[in-house]
Specification:
The protein is of the alpha/beta class and 585 residues long. The chain has 3 domains: 191 residues, no CATH class; 180 residues, P-loop containing nucleotide triphosphate hydrolases (Rossmann fold); 141 residues, P-loop containing nucleotide triphosphate hydrolases (Rossmann fold), CATH 3.40.50. Helices cover 41% and strands 19% of the residues. It has 21 helices and 23 strands. The strands form 5 sheets. The protein has a 6-stranded mixed β-sheet with strand order 1-2-3-4-8-9, with helices on both faces. The chain has a 6-stranded parallel β-sheet with strand order 12-11-13-14-10-15. The chain has a 6-stranded parallel β-sheet with strand order 18-23-22-19-21-20. Helix 9 packs across helix 11. The longest helix is centred in the N-terminal third of the chain and has 19 residues. The radius of gyration is 28 Å and the shape is elongated.
Length: 585
């Protein structure tokens, strides 16, 4: 991926062609050593001197000025006419080739003056014109076709076009010109970025992006209306589609109408978070928040079966205890309870709960039972069940006979970069469109524990230097961290997530960053996630863990990937890139 400056397109940029090219340059494979400056990214920069440059691309081959003209283009009697998607036409006597070349020569003179006596003064400068919606031949112009990227080139890898530009520029330039190594590229970018970019603080980025993410989408409002008007529903949505937020709001509304609501989830840290939401609210009906097994435990504890259960639990494996013994005893215990059944049961992360024994217990706790009672089950069938391994397809299919199913198609938690990288790495069955731009995902490759811990230190130091709010940062591990990793976490005051801190994630009340295994963070989220330890992209468990971990990040995501996965990742990235280009076309 290309390093973009700024890293998102400014909202003032109306040109669809520029937005598409921004995305194409940013996501093109094998461009990790490119830097691209988008001059219109901040349209009101107070000191901008080169606003006429659409894209300035720094590559190992040289520096290239790219002029973009989208929409309909024609030239009559030497005058250029550009018509955009709003059917607005502008007229220009220079044309895109003159604009691009004059901007390039102006920039080249400036660089020669500033960096006189260094190799930067003799870097290769070139320019190109991108007209993605028309064919070059239709314009009837005589400029070199090597400079053009037109409608016919949209399926061509973008680096091929830049290599063609570089080759043509060298062949037509008699003087010796240099490419850019990493140091020269960074030096030039540091000089130029002042004209292209006002860099906001990390906390400002988080605040602005959070504002864009927090409001309920129209899709969610419509879903809420359906949930209140239908007694039984299955709501399926990918990670980030707002299932937990909808479940909480539904429980709140139902309780305020006087209903007694049982809100169940699987993860105790998620339960603590949900419980904290309702803690301060005075609701006439009431919401009881429990994990599935704390619900079972409470039923058994208040029955005559408690002693028998305690004896048997010590004779079976943990899996048998949770999958079989708990629901079996809870079902019998529910027959003894004098408590009135719940008016409505809401399940969040239902993919971790839906097995026939578990559903039988819920049937006994619900007024009028599963078939005729009121319930809403929120689930994500994408990979996640592999983390806990509880979903039973036959049980889910049976529930569909009694309830209406709806699907959430909008990702309102993750930014586009987070959602895109999650899709590339975990390859989920269902995907939801993310709506909000954000900073690029940092992919950090490691070869062994030593390099992984070194990168972890660097990442935490980087966030600290940016004065990031510690409460907004969570480090996730696929498995229990090593002693070396725990020592680093302790040194940076990163504490293990507990039920008490889960409710405070991202708030001023939490003074520390947190860490957790992925399984303990299901259903939760934070602004910044550091995920350590992708060492496979293929097996079901790894895909599930990667999917859950990466989708916990609202805005900033750092992903540590083993070098063994690099080739597989790059192949998937190429496929995703091709798919995105086809959508653009």
């Amino acid at each position: 991926m290309t390093r973009m400056i700024p890293d998102t397109v400014h909202s003032n940029v109306r040109s669809g062609a520029e937005r598409k090219l921004f995305k194409r340059i940013k996501t093109s494979p094998k461009t990790e050593d490119w830097i691209c400056l988008h001059s219109l990214g901040l349209a009101h920069h107070p000191t901008k001197r080169r606003a006429e440059i659409d894209f300035l691309l720094l590559t190992p081959d040289g520096v290239f000025v790219l002029e973009v003209k989208g929409g309909r283009i024609k030239r009559e009697r030497g005058v250029w006419h550009y018509t955009n998607k709003y059917n607005e036409t502008t007229i220009n006597h220079e044309g895109p080739f003159v604009q691009a070349s004059s901007a390039m020569f102006s920039l080249e003179r400036s660089i020669k003056s500033i960096f006189a006596g260094t190799k930067l003064a003799n870097v290769l400068f070139g320019y190109g014109v991108i007209i993605p919606d028309v064919l070059f031949e239709s314009l009837g112009i005589e400029d070199s076709p090597e400079l053009i990227h037109d409608k016919d080139n949209r399926n061509e890898p973008f680096p091929n076009y830049i290599q063609r530009l570089a080759r043509y520029t060298r062949e037509t330039n008699k003087k010796t010109r240099y490419g850019l190594n990493k140091d020269r590229m960074n030096e030039l970018a540091d000089y130029l970025r002042g004209d292209f970019d006002l860099v906001p603080t990390l906390n400002t980025v988080l605040q602005d992006t959070n504002s864009a993410l927090t409001s309920l989408t129209e899709e969610q409002y419509n879903t809420l209306d359906s949930l209140q008007n239908r007694p039984r529903m299955i709501v399926e949505g990918v990670a980030g589609s707002g299932k937990t937020m909808l479940a909480i709001e539904l429980a709140r509304r139902e309780a305020r109408s006087g209903k007694k609501v049982l809100f169940l989830c699987y993860n105790r840290n998620l339960r603590a978070h949900i419980d904290s939401v309702f803690e301060s609210e005075q609701i006439s009906g009431g919401v009881v928040v429990k994990t599935l097994h704390s619900n079972f435990h409470d039923l058994i504890a208040h029955s005559s079966l408690v002693d028998e259960f305690n004896e048997e639990r010590n004779t079976v494996t943990e899996q048998t205890l949770f999958d079989t013994i708990y629901p079996e005893y809870a079902l019998h215990a529910s027959l003894e309870t004098s408590d009135l059944p719940f008016d409505k049961i809401i399940l969040d992360e239902a993919q971790d709960i839906l097995s026939e024994p578990n559903v039988l217990v819920l049937d006994s706790q619900m007024r009028n039972g599963i078939e005729n009672g009121e319930w809403v089950f929120f689930l994500d069938s994408n990979n996640q069940a592999s983390v806990y391994g509880k979903i039973d397809e036959a049980t889910l299919e049976n529930l569909r006979k009694y309830g209406v199913q709806t699907i959430l198609n909008t990702n309102c938690r993750n930014t586009r970069p987070v959602a895109n990288q999650t899709n590339i790495i975990s390859n989920p069955r269902l995907r939801a469109a993310a709506q909000v731009d954000g900073p690029p995902v940092d992919l950090i490759y490691f070869s062994d524990l030593k390099t992984k811990t070194k990168h972890l230190v660097n990442t935490l130091e980087q966030l600290k230097s940016k004065n990031a709010n510690p409460a907004t940062i969570t480090v996730l591990f696929a498995c229990e961290p090593t002693p070396e990793e725990k020592a680093i976490l302790e040194n940076f005051d990163v504490i293990a997530l507990e039920t008490s801190s889960a409710a405070l994630l991202g708030t001023p009340k939490l003074e520390h960053s947190t860490w957790s295994c992925v399984s303990g963070f299901k259903g939760l989220e934070n602004d910044t996630i550091i995920f350590l330890g992708i060492d496979s992209l293929d097996d079901d468990w790894s895909r599930a863990i990667n999917y859950v971990a990466m989708s916990r990040a609202r805005i900033c995501l750092y992903v540590f990937i083993h070098e063994n996965c690099r080739a597989a990742y790059e192949k998937r990235s190429e496929i995703e890139y091709r798919s995105e280009i086809e959508k653009v076309d």
